[in-house]
Design goal:
There is one protein chain. The protein has one domain: Immunoglobulin-like, CATH 2.60.40. Helices cover 9% and strands 33% of the residues. The chain is built from 2 helices and 10 strands. It has a 5-stranded mixed beta sheet, with no helix packed on it. Strands 2-6-5 form a 3-stranded antiparallel beta sheet. It has a two-stranded antiparallel ribbon with strand order 7-8. It starts with a strand and ends in a 6-residue tail after the last strand.
């Protein structure tokens, strides 16, 4: 069910700023990434209702699990991941998205405990369902942080 979704330089995510990342989730049962992408482009992909799911979003330098998480967000308290919009089985009318809140201090907080000072560059991210018996990666890919003249 995992769909590669790269966050590229074109999306302009800068270090030290507040942003929301939004991920639609589709049924990928028996589909390759290419087939699912074709369905999304044609407007025929089947959205999945993710309301009530436990979710985890992680940013790391590399995909290895022993590489420390640089940013980690989850549903719960505080709710840094929320489900927004209204689910509909029709892709054309479905507005539901998984929203991940990134705060300026997630990527740059030199006075924090511990200090956070990420550098511009390419990282790896993934969004995973965490419900027992249903754990699965939903989205994954590259994540590019840019640097501006201000933080």
């Amino acid at each position: 069910m995992a769909l590669q979704q790269d966050i590229t330089a074109d999306q302009r995510i800068f270090l030290g700023e507040d942003k929301y990342l939004e991920f639609p989730v589709y049924d990928q049962t028996n589909l390759t990434d290419e087939e699912l992408r074709a369905q999304i482009a044609a407007g025929t992909a089947t959205p999945i209702d993710v309301s009530g799911w436990g979710l985890l979003w992680v940013l790391r330098k590399k995909d290895k699990s022993d590489d420390p998480a640089l940013i980690e967000k989850s549903t719960g308290s505080p709710a840094d991941i929320t489900v927004i919009g209204t689910w509909d089985a029709n892709q054309g009318t479905n507005t539901q998205r998984v929203r991940v809140a990134l705060y300026d201090t997630d990527s740059y907080d030199p006075t924090g405990s511990p200090p956070v000072i990420l550098r511009k560059g390419t990282y790896r991210h993934s969004l995973k369902r965490m419900d027992d018996g249903s754990e699965s990666v939903l989205n994954f890919g590259k994540f590019v942080f840019l640097q501006s003249t201000t933080r």
